[in-house]
Each structure stands twice: as C-alpha cells, then as structure tokens.
Specification:
This protein is 34% helix and 26% strand.
Amino acid sequence: MHELKKQLATYQAGQMLEVGTGSGKYIPTLLEIFSGIERIMGIDTDTDSLRQAEAAYASHEKIQFMQMNAAKMDFADQTFDTVCISNALHHLPPGVNVIEEMKRVVKRNGLFLINELVSDDPNEAQLSHILYHHFGADVDQRLGKYHRHTYTR
C-alpha cells in the first residue's frame, strides 16, 4: 500500500469525481494521497449523507457535492481527470451500470480508482471491521436496502 500511495502522490489528480461519496469519509484520504487536485466533485443519491458532507467541507471551496444517480450521471463524456469509488460498490444491486458510467466520464489516459473492502485473510482489527460491516449489511437488507457483505478475491 505504501508503494501505491507513493506512485499516486506523483499523479496530478486535476478534476476529480468521487462516486458514492456518502458523508465524504474518503475525501481526507484523497487529499492526503493526491497532488494537483483542482476540484473534487462528490456524488451520491442519499440526501442526508450529502448534507453531512456539505457541512464537513463547507470551508473547502474545491470540494463540491451533488445528488446524482451514478448509473446515469449528468456529466459529459471525458469530464474528469480522476474518477474513484471507495467502499460503495457493495451497496449497488447487480445490474447497476456504475462502472460503465465511470469509464464514460473519465478522460482518456485519466485515472480510474476502485477501493473496496475485501474479507480475505484479515488481521484482527480488519476482522472486527468486517464483522461490524456484515452486521450493518444484514440490518440494511432487512430494512429493504441493498447492501451486500464484503467481497472476496
């Protein structure tokens, strides 16, 4: 992971899209890892999460949020230099076209980044997080929200 962070630090992120931003919890990681960020646009369908994100980043003029369906984005082709999604794919039901939409809006030779929790060979701290996540996924499923357990490799 250290080597990946080192390589990403040299990449000029430019116009960045974070898909499934939720309350913006991945944004500090993006700000820490990348250089040359001109703007971060976070999109999500959940208005409550977006309100939290807007409140948390109100003083950051380069960070903006929009309510938008990631499977049908309102952006032109090849709009963003960097497109990422973090820990959100497992919230999307099968057949949702988010990856294709992300590919459509990233510029040719842009960076396409997927960060997703997997449950293979975890250490003790990771196992605790995975079990907590699986419990939350089970609760969401019972409430009628699509939320699968973590992926395996």
